[in-house]
Design a protein that fits this description.
3 helices, 143 residues, 24% strand, five-stranded mixed sheet, alpha/beta, 25% helix
Length: 143
């Protein structure tokens, strides 16, 4: 793979929830801070995408937490069409990722799956997609 890094596809997800709303804020001294926050209607959004050496591929946003069914839908509708023979899809060990249906869709395109080792807090993994997602979030919030 050192000679063909364009074949690597790192899959990861990130999410946000309205429970992340700040409970406290700042305002000029002597003034009351007035702002709105959702109450009782907690919502979650999940963003999943693949990262290749040339950029993000197959982005997908869903308004719920990730589960196996959503992951299978993502692989079949978004990721698999972008894969070609010889691609290597690298995933973490989340239980939702270990789906025979998703594996079949990936293998049907001539690609194969590789799972990262189980997470160990004592070891620091440098995941290339973490910084990419952070940069994308900053760019979208500025726009």
């Amino acid at each position: 793979m050192r000679l063909e890094p364009h074949r690597l596809v790192f899959i990861d997800e990130t999410g946000t929830t309205t429970k992340m709303t700040r409970l406290y804020g700042r305002c000029p001294k002597g003034q009351r801070l007035r702002s709105k926050a959702p109450f009782g209607h907690w919502k979650t959004q999940t963003f999943i995408a693949g990262l290749r050496c040339h950029g993000l591929t197959a982005p997908f946003v869903v308004a719920r937490p990730m589960n196996r069914r959503i992951f299978e839908t993502y692989v079949e509708t978004q990721l698999a069409p972008t894969l070609s023979a010889g691609d290597v899809v690298i995933l973490d060990n989340l239980a939702a990722r270990k789906s025979p249906k998703a594996e079949t869709a990936i293998k049907a395109r001539g690609a194969w799956m590789l799972f990262l080792p189980a997470y160990e807090p004592s070891r620091v993994y440098r995941r290339p997609f973490g910084l990419s997602y952070a940069a994308t979030a900053v760019r979208s919030s500025v726009a």
